[in-house]
């Protein structure tokens, strides 16, 4: 579908809202004003495309813009993504709590986490989260509490070398579970593991994942949980805590 942007016509207003900002005429406005400006621009382009017949219905009944309208809306939607983020982001001066949490998590007071972006949490679309990169690692932080939601390997970029983990058989499964519980006690002291459903995953005989799930409720279709991934060599693979979001 080259040169086309899929777009269901009854959702014009909604699609405009989820996009964001910065056509040239919107420069100089604050993030919310730019978002509103692009919302109006997308509505206008959609209406003009409809009037000119620059639309095409596919076999599934969805309507796609064609020609120049497709290019314009595609550009605005990409710009909108940046604008939407800006409406969620907090000033750098207010990120100290998140940085402190990351330093505590990684036991390194000299770390300087690189702020990457702000968006909805990976686990709850109603929660705003900040994303940071620390070397080869990626951290998601709850903006309301500065608690770590998720830690794991960062997305690979061209030229990046894969992170190497210690997979020598140094610790037993029981040892690793104790390490997981110690980390949870440190980073999520309010988590009562005795009241949660415990499970263990294993991969390749070298990686173990210890999860405790709150089966009493669901958030965005997933039951809240806390999970720690460790290698048999004692390296931390991942940490996820959705109990408090």
Walk me through this protein's architecture:
This protein is α+β, with helices and mostly antiparallel strands and 245 residues long. It has three domains: 5-88; 92-103 and 112-155; 165-245, no CATH class. Helix content is 31%, strand content 25%. It is built from five helices and eleven strands. It has helices spanning 12-18, 31-52, 67-88, 96-105, 173-187, and strands at 5-6, 55-57, 63-65, 114-120, 128-134, 137-142, 148-153, 197-203, 207-213, 225-231, 236-241. It has an eight-stranded antiparallel β-sheet with strand order 4-5-6-7-11-10-9-8. The protein has a three-stranded antiparallel β-sheet with strand order 1-3-2. A hairpin with a 7-residue loop joins strand 4 and strand 5. The longest helix has 22 residues, at 31-52. The radius of gyration is 22 Å and the shape is elongated. The two termini are 39 Å apart. The model is unreliable at 1-25 (pLDDT under 50).
